[in-house]
Amino acid sequence: MDNTGYCNDSFNSIRSSTSDEDMVEIAGSTLDFSNTEDVPPLDRDYGSGDNPGMEEVNGVPKLMDLLDEPVPGVGTYEDFNTIDWVREKSKDRDRHREITSKSKESTWALVNSVCDAFSGWLLMLLIGLMSGALAGGIDISAHWMTDLKEGVCLNGFWFNHEHCCWTSNETTFQERDKCPQWKSWAELIIGTTEGPFAYIMNYLMYVCWALLFSFLAVTLVRAFAPYACGSGIPEIKTILSGFIIRGYLGKWTLVIKTITLVLAVSSGLSLGKEGPLVHVACCCGNILCHLFTKYRKNEAKRREVLSAAAAVGVSVAFGAPIGGVLFSLEEVSYYFPLKTLWRSFFAALVAAFTLRSINPFGNSRLVLFYVEFHTPWHLLELVPFILLGIFGGIWGAFFIRANIAWCRRRKTTWLGHYPVLEVLVVTAVTAVVAFPNSYTRTSTSELISELFNDCGLLDSSKLCNYDNANVTKSSNELPDRPAGNDVYTAMWQLSLALVFKMLITVVTFGMKVPSGLFIPSMAVGAIAGRLLGIGMEQLAYYHHDWAIFRGWCSPGADCITPGLYAMVGAAACLGGVTRMTVSLVVIMFELTGGLEYIVPLMAAAMTSKWVADAIGREGIYEAHIRLNGYPFLEAKEEFSHKTLAMDVMRPRRSDPPLSVLTQDGMTVEDVETMITDTTYSGFPVVVSHESQRLVGFVLRRDLTISIDNARQRQDGIVSTSRVFFTEYTPPQPPNSPPPLKLRGIMDLSPFTVTDHTAMDIVVDIFRKLGLRQCLITHNGRLLGIITKKDILKHVAQIANRDPDSILFN
After folding, report:
1. Residue 106, burial from CB neighbour count under 10 angstroms (0-12, 13-18, 19+)
2. What Å distances lie between residue 90 and 14, 76, 298, 610, CA to CA?
3. Which residues, 6 or more positions from 101, have their beta carbon under 8 angstroms from its beta carbon?
4. Which three-class secondary structure string do you get for 372-420?
5. pLDDT at position 39, please?
6. What is the reported pLDDT for 45?
7. Separation CA 147–CA 511 (nearest Å)
8. Cβ atoms within 10 Å, residue 607
9. Whole-angstrom distance, CA of residue 186 vs CA of residue 194
10. Rounded to an integer, what distance in angstroms lies between the CA atom of residue 82 and that of residue 78?
């Protein structure tokens, strides 16, 4: 795969712009094929040797190869194009060989070689520090603004409810949420906290703050950074597969996503910040890449950094550095070498340490809902755990279908033309319905924390209102107890919250605000799990003599932990939506710190995936990739149809002949005409139209930039100048314009297969090598070409989908 056909000097000369809007950060050249000197002057003597672009050797003009000197833009990519992984890896090998060979020549070159080797680790350190700091700021801000909807702290408006009451001497443990320093809006405005008027005032202020936050979020996104909306994970998966989306990981996107993520979460919408934090971390990685030449100028190397940044995003979102690395490997990365694994681990470690140093939740933990369970689980409890897995799989498949149907409706109807109105309406409905129910009024993270909680004697939650008459204060383990009235009230409220969360999340995910799906999915599963856990607990208490409880659940023993059921349910629903398995179990394990609960989590996660896959094969991110038409070849899908390369290649029998360049028989005008008349991103180079023997492949962008550069720098290049892709240029007739040698931009080793190659092999080649195109030959003669777009269209046709829905330049 070592491609010696690319000129090393050209790769070292790729120029990067500093534009905030570019993901690729390349300033594209504006090409002007019009030239007032297309007709050469008759009195010019081209053989005299006066041409600065030519040297005379033994009386024969020797061409200057344009790629002997830097040509800005050659080797770069346009927006909405796919990178050539083979070419990018070849570039990096050439660069590395050059640095290694020079390191033996001088001490300075040796120091430069050491700095180059160390730059990757330094970049990981910077990404971890920056992402951890941003995540800490987002957590603190979101917590404060969420509490701002209910009241304000008189000691300082910047304190949230919990921090405001920490310093109060009048706060009791039983009523630790009540302190004179914290005032509700009703108390501030009408002077009382009791009665219907106070309730209505708090209700109105809650709705108004929610509408204000969501309006600011959607307005900022629409005005400054449209790419800041949504989760970001489908687009990051597509970018990591080699697709170019300029601006998606730029500075403006980072700034606006960070601000609007806080606003969107604080508005009370059914969304989370975990998915967007992956986008934020990848923006940090992309921006910091510009500090290091080898990452700034090589798209494949940059994608290794972005894979590590995705791991950092999950690390700071869940406080799960190992789970973050596995998430990047299992869910988002397209190319994940062992070196990237080590660097991802280091970056996730630095990010988790930074977040721990900030301590955004004040509990010395990395997440708000860290819990520890002390009661071991019994083998028979695998049955309800598997039931939760089945529920998670069914809900995940239902959610994907419903959400994709709603998003498709948004794209194809008038709804998509009014994103601000849609966000405000959904926010208003969410706030109006959520406020009366204490479990939907609170933030989703706090709800999950309460559902995961293992009840103790001093817990004031309604979920922990058990009959403690027979429990001594000194007992370390609380036995199963009969539920009090508040527990049954809480179960009804949770049932209503479950239905509300299931429905409202469908329309919320995909709106034009930053919206993550991890936390809402976990909330649905946690509610279902807690309800099942309480039911099992009461069943064990009142019917401990049943066969299923006899022998392991005696009267007075602590048998069932409802919080564990909530945790397993959360994992099941998140797995059903995203289809994660290994990384999901590790993330949930790191959340709870309990090694002994890995088996229930594994059982629920695998059951959830099996059930969801039986209903629909796609996870939520793959479904959104297909909905948006991104050119992504899913590595998990099997290609089982018996077609050959000749069935998919272009040109087809009814198409015009394949547009090719000849190695020595075309003029500049001929090449420019072909570029103008076609939209192809590259052209095969053949010996002649008659032989069709393949010589190489040249990209359209490199061709246009090189011709434009030659007109500016090489004297005498006009429309009648001959273009050569050969190594040696034959002697030119007297008084003819100087020829243009472009061999340096040609790929001398394009990937080829024969026309009888099975398409499943071709698809595997495209997936594993990251090809942009593959040339089809028969007995050495060029027959046609298969591009990544052709592969995607063929796969879509086989799946009875619209092949023209794929987004490609």
Report:
1. exposed
2. 15, 14, 10, 41
3. none
4. CCCCCCCHHHHHHHHHHHHHHHHHHHHHHHHHHHHHHHHHHCHHHHCHH
5. 35
6. 40
7. 24
8. 23
9. 9
10. 9
How far is Cα 445 from Cα 451, in angstroms, rounded to an integer?
10
> Residue 44: what pLDDT?
37
**Which range is least confidently modeled, 458-472, 622-636, 652-666, 714-728?**
458-472
- Parallel, antiparallel, or unpaired for β 740-741 and 722-724? parallel
Closest CA to 440 of 504, 369, 525: 504
Q: Which two tokens stand for residue 363?
A: 């509990």
- Top-ranked range on mean pLDDT: pick from 204-213, 357-366, 536-545, 724-733: 204-213
Identify the residue whose tokens are 């007739």: 733
- What's the helix, strand, coil split of the chain in %, to 5? 55, 10, 40
Report the C-alpha dihedral over residues 537, 541, 542, 548, rounded to 10 degrees. 80
pTM of the model: 0.84
Q: How far apart are CA 324 and CA 563, in angstroms?
A: 24
Q: In whole angstroms, give the CA distance from residue 709 to residue 743.
A: 15
From first CA to last CA, the distance across the chain in angstroms is 27
550 pLDDT exceeds 90? no
Ramachandran angles phi, psi of 250, nearest 5°: -85, 180
**How many residues in the chain?**
809
Helix (H) and strand (E) counts in the chain: 28, 13
| pLDDT of 370 over the 70 cut | yes
The residues facing 753 across adjacent strands are 776
Q: Dihedral sign for Cα 463, 465, 471, 474, please.
A: positive
54-57 and 60-63: which strand pairing?
antiparallel
Which two tokens mark 159? 């304190």
Q: What is the DSSP string of 537-565?
A: HHHHHHTTTSTTTTTT--TT-----HHHH
Mean pLDDT of 609-620: 92
If you search the block for the tokens 């690319």, which residue do you land on? 6
Higher pLDDT pick, 52 / 543? 543
